Amino acid sequence: xxxxxxxxxxxxxxxxxxxxxxxxxxxxxxxxxxxxxxxxxxxxxxxxxxxxxxxxxxxxxxxxxxx
Length: 67
Hints:
By secondary structure, the protein is an all-alpha fold. Helices cover about 50% and strands about 0% of the residues. The chain has 2 helices and no strands. It has helices at about 5-15, 25-45. Helix 1 packs across helix 2. It is flat and about 45 Å long. It holds the Pfam family DUF2934.
């Protein structure tokens, strides 16, 4: 079970990182709750995700041409 304190703290940091927009507290709370739950699942070894993009394996993002 996740604690509201962990979610609240992470939601705050998400809010700050997005420039402190108003009216998006539910979005920030849901995102933080998802992130906390995923981290707890990762720590317990239960990392089955329902997001198909997360199950494709590790890939590096394409880097821009430096020439």
